[in-house]
Amino acid sequence: MLPATRGGMNPAATTAHERDDVARGEPGAVAHPRWTIAATMLASSLAFIDGSVTNVALPAMGKDLGGDAATLPWIINAYLLPLSALLLLGGASGDHVGRRRMLIAGILLFALASVGCALAPDLHVLLASRTLQGIGAAILMPNSLGILGSSFAGEARGRAVGTWAAAGAIASAIGPPLGGWLIDAVGWRSIFYLNLPVAVAAILIASRYVAESEPEDKPLDWSGALLATAALGSLTWALTLWSSRHGASAASWAGLGAGVLLLLGFVWNERQRGDRAMMPLALFASRPFIGLTLLTLMLYGALGGLLVLLPYLLIVGGSYSTTQAGLALLPFAIVIGTMSRLAGRLAERIGPRWPLTIGPVVTGAGFALLVRADPQASYWTSILPGLAVIALGMAGAVAPLTTAVLSSVDDRHTGTASGFNSAVARTGGLIATALAGAVIAVPAGALAGVFHVAALVAAGFAIAAGLIAFLTLRR
After folding, report:
1. How many angstroms separate the Cα of 461 from the Cα of each of 291, 335, 393?
2. CA 332, 112, 199: angle at the middle one, nearest 5?
3. How much of the chain exceeds pLDDT 90, in percent?
4. Domain residue spans in the chain?
5. Residue 6 in contact with residue 32, Cβ under 8 Å?
6. Kind and range of the H or E run holding 86
């Protein structure tokens, strides 16, 4: 049960001094800690629910709207692309104009875009609406974490982030089976209406109970946002084209070249802007920061590929119903949901080095177990063991990683820091989804063999992520 307001006061009557204490993140200073956590959990759960449900719905969407191996990955990447490219700007905008204000704006945009997805008459409208969803998520995600980072400190921050991560896992757990049942019973369009009651609850709680942060007087880096978006868009398009056709072409090479040039332009722009950049290059003078960035890219890239390919393998290769495929992912999210809070507390006590070393290595072992995955065989012996080990490893890494990133910057820049780390995580998933077209394009009878290769590649990346944490993080 969530607590009453402190001292029985209406949140609107909170004093300016109390709001300043909250913004500085002093322990116990936040006026409504559990309501604050509830608002950020509900907001971020929108992104988690949507991602998990869409992965399960991909075959049904493709069949209804006429998507093929070249276009199906874009149903996911149309969402991930703006989410990856604009998370930094979304976090910086919260630092600039107020995190609560931007959180509510992001939720509202996400909800409206969800209605657009549900009503989409064709693939083009669906992709446009998915893009708007990604923009909304890019605003709400870093500001939900930024609010947590500035509202709590010390062990309280670890507990809050662990609770936030657990709620995201629970949302991911509920999404696939509920969405799968809705797809089978009503149709894929119904899954987007799931976002609306969550969005309404998040807006009401945030507007009433979450304190506004102190705005910064710093211009937003629009040129950096445009360059990052164009670079990721070019690279994603080129990789999707290459993977779906199982070979490079002049167009894919041109896209890769343009993406690299745009990335170099982004780096040059950020260097010119200095401290006014949305991604200050001075951050990369820190070896732990570089290590956390590489770990995030590798670990979430491996995980993103799995969450796209495994439901597709079960539905297309194993004739699972959408509901069954959703239930197949349930143990993964349950394990993360029950263990993330404990992992967050542990990381606050012993530091992030060992959790972020052991967790990814265990995750890699789980990916290696999936070389036994056979969609025609028993789920309990061929799928569940690997999935459970992956979940155990990720549970040990999710909350410590988030806490380590939030603790690496001062309170004024928690929105930017969480935005950058989330951007790197989504970029890993974006690249993995683009490459997943190589698996989606093969005939159903050959899916299992290609999936096994993808599982081994994911295992290598996850284990490498753990080694990077061991070598770069302080004892």
Report:
1. 14, 22, 14
2. 50
3. 24
4. 30-212+278-472, 221-277
5. yes
6. helix 72-97
Rg (CA), the chain: 21
Give the C-alpha separation, 195 to 46, whole Å.
6
Residue-wise pLDDT for 14-54, tens only, equals 333 333 443 343 444 567 788 888 888 888 888 877 777 88
For residues 39 and 60, give the distance between their C-alpha atoms in angstroms, rounded to a whole number: 32
Backbone torsions φ then ψ of 377, nearest 5 degrees? -95, -175
For 332, the token pair is 């993964």
The crossing angle, in degrees rounded to 10, of helices 72-97 and 33-65 is 150
* CB within 8 Å of 215: residues ≥ 6 apart: 95, 96, 97, 98
pTM to 2 decimal places: 0.73
Give the pLDDT confidence of 236-250 residue by residue, as tens digits. 778 877 776 666 778
Task: Let me know if 330 is exposed, middle or buried by CB neighbors in 10 A (0-12, 13-18, 19+).
Answer: middle
Rounded Cα–Cα distance for residues 397 and 122 (Å): 39
DSSP secondary-structure letter at 30?
-
d(CA 414, CA 145): 8
| 30-212+278-472 CATH pick, 3.30.300.30, 1.10.260.40, 1.20.1250.20, 1.20.200.10 | 1.20.1250.20
The string of DSSP letters for 302-315 reads HHHHHHHHHHHIII
Counted residue by residue, the chain has a size of 475
Confirm if 108 and 429 have CB atoms less than 8 A apart. Answer: no
